[in-house]
Amino acid sequence: MAALYLEAIPLLLAVVHTLCDIIVDQAPFASGLIGSTANLPCHLIDAKKQVIRAHPYWLLQKPNQSEVTLYPIKPDEVTRVQLSNEKEWKDMSIFLSNLQLSDTSKYICRISVLKGSESLFKPGNGTMLYVHGPIQMDFNYSHVMCKTQVQMAETVSFVWNFPFWDTLHWEELSSKQQNPDGSFWISSHVTLQGHCTAKRNVTLSCSLKNNMGYVIDKQSVEVRCPAPIEMDFNNTHVSCLNQLQEAQNISFVWDFGPWKWMKGPELSNQRQNPDGSYWIKSIVRLHHERCTTKANVTLSCSLRHSLGFTLQNQSIEVPCTDNNTGGSQPKGHHPVLFFSLLLGSTLLILLFVLLLFYRRRQSRNPRQRLKVHVPYNAVR
């Protein structure tokens, strides 16, 4: 048995050597827009130049389905597949025209080669083609959206790039919605919270990537750096001010935290500038009756879209102390003290009225006050 193994080793080495001499090289990934044409590269590498003749075969491999031959085809069949270079027999690349979302699949290039008198089939590792719709990108204030249509939503995602944003905090919301034909709409929304240092327009971009890290497509949009929220405290009032290019459906939302003694906003307004931009302002007044803390507390306001997206937020520390009119409790207005004084005053008045009534009654019966006690023995 050992001798048989020793005789088989040279044969195995010869087979491996033969396989390494001839290689079918395929690109692992390709992508294309709906309706466009995709190039799927495939090249025959013959290191020792032993191949006399070669014929390409392109196969479509879908999950849980049998392979389908795309090339060559029968004479009466209509195909969207065409060899990219028919004169160069080592270049077996193809063009796939009029791409559809359903063309998203793995394509295998298999070449039949004649090496001397030996006929061999050499397959490539396959090219994953991903067909997608155009990326739709929209910027609305500090809310940015990317959206596109794909065939397989579980293998792709959007990746964002925010250059020049130094203090950027962003929240991402991704979603997918299936269509009747089995395809998906995928989208990603980000809310930018922070300011960029550049005093000019900056470029934001989102890339559609698959789970292997390949970039399928990329889109960019130029946006204006948002102005920071200006927040101010003036004794008993807190104000928030911000400049926007468009102010429709935008408003300030206040967060008072544990400050239950604050109510607002009392005043909100918008003012248009000559350049078309807007100033938006909101003011709240501090009501001190229920200010229980003796330290500074934090008050914040957020610039929010009517759809619920937070564009920016800002915070400020406000004092709540007895030495400050903005946080002290006004004397004589505490409800418990007020009712205690009222009850005490009422009881005193009632007692005074009863005393007057008693004295007047005593003054109307003078005989009772002059009655003298005479001993019984003295009368006899």
From TrEMBL:
Record bears the keyword Transmembrane: yes
Range of residues in the leader sequence: 1-18
Top-level lineage group: Eukaryota
Keywords: Disulfide bond, Glycoprotein, Membrane, Signal, Transmembrane, Transmembrane helix
Transmembrane segments: 336-358
Domain Immunoglobulin V-set residue range list: 34-132
InterPro entries: Ig-like_CS_Receptor (IPR051755), Ig-like_dom_sf (IPR036179), Ig-like_fold (IPR013783), Ig_V-set (IPR013106)
Name assigned to this protein: Uncharacterized protein LOC121396616
Lineage: Eukaryota, Metazoa, Chordata, Craniata, Vertebrata
